[in-house]
Amino acid sequence: MSLYNSVDIFINPSYSEGLPTTVLEAGLMKCAVVATNVGGTSEIIENGRDGLLCKPEVLDITDKLETVIKDKSFRETIAENLHKRVCEQFSWEKTSEKILEIIGQDSD
């Protein structure tokens, strides 16, 4: 986790994902995220609000990366938005609440 403190931007250039823990960690540490729109990444990032989603193609990744490098205000805004989203929706407390809801629904 300490490595995230040394960067402003995190890139997740993946072809396949479940729910990417690295994106959650980067958000927790207030990094702006550029990630390929695969698997559960879009469950964490709303494109343009909490980070930038892109195709798993070099040109699209570099285009989105240039955007966050060049616009410091945008970079800081999406990093802060992602941090809030991760803290509010993906904490252990929220996860356990969701599990208990599911268990409760199944036992009816």
Topology of this protein?
Blueprint: E1 9-12, H1 21-28, E2 32-36, H2 41-44, E3 52-54, H3 58-70, H4 72-89, H5 92-106
Parallel strand pairs: 1-2, 2-3
Helix pairs in contact: 1-4
Main features:
Rossmann fold; 3-stranded parallel β-sheet; 54% helix; mainly alpha
What proportion strand? Answer: 5-15%
The CATH topology label is: Rossmann fold
Task: Please identify the top-level CATH class.
Answer: Alpha Beta
Percent range for helical residues? 40-55%
Placed side by side, the strands forming the largest sheet appear as 1-2-3
* Name of the CATH homologous superfamily: Glycogen Phosphorylase B
Shape: globular
| Cα gyration radius (Å) | 15 Å
Average per-residue pLDDT, rounded, comes to 93
Give me the count of strands: 3
User: What's the architecture in CATH terms?
Assistant: 3-Layer(aba) Sandwich
